[in-house]
Amino acid sequence: MSAQIIEREGKPEYAVLPYSDYLRLLELAEDVRDTADATEAMRELVSGEDEVIPAEVVARLIAREDHPLKIWREYRGLTQEALGNSAGASKSYISQIEAGNKIGSAKVLKALAEELQVDMEDLLLE
């Protein structure tokens, strides 16, 4: 890599370099950011701050064939009754939300999200 250094008052002010070198530096900077992001993601996984979601669960969420509440509930291995009891909602209320007959109050959705260890937005139909 060759660069022309332009000085101002005897101190380096600018570096002029071939465009191909500039593009390579951009690639390297992106690689450094990607590595830092991957390292942070691994740290979060190891510390338990984040988790790996199985591809089957992600596929179900993307396909939208079932309500997200049902998908997350089943993934966590909970029955409607168990989830309802821990979140302060009835089994029938959970069933109605999963069937799309009720939206669910913000209070209940927040409690359900906490029990399922997801963000409240993850339980909303878009």
Automatic annotation (TrEMBL):
List the keywords (alphabetical). DNA-binding
Domain annotation HTH cro/C1-type: ranges: 69-123
Asked whether the UniProt record includes Manganese among its keywords, one would answer no
- Taxonomic superkingdom: Bacteria
The record ties this protein, via PROSITE patterns, to: HTH_CROC1
Q: Which Gene3D superfamilies match?
A: lambda repressor-like DNA-binding domains
| Keyword check for Lipid metabolism | no
GO molecular function annotation: DNA binding; DNA-binding transcription factor activity
Q: What is this protein called?
A: XRE family transcriptional regulator
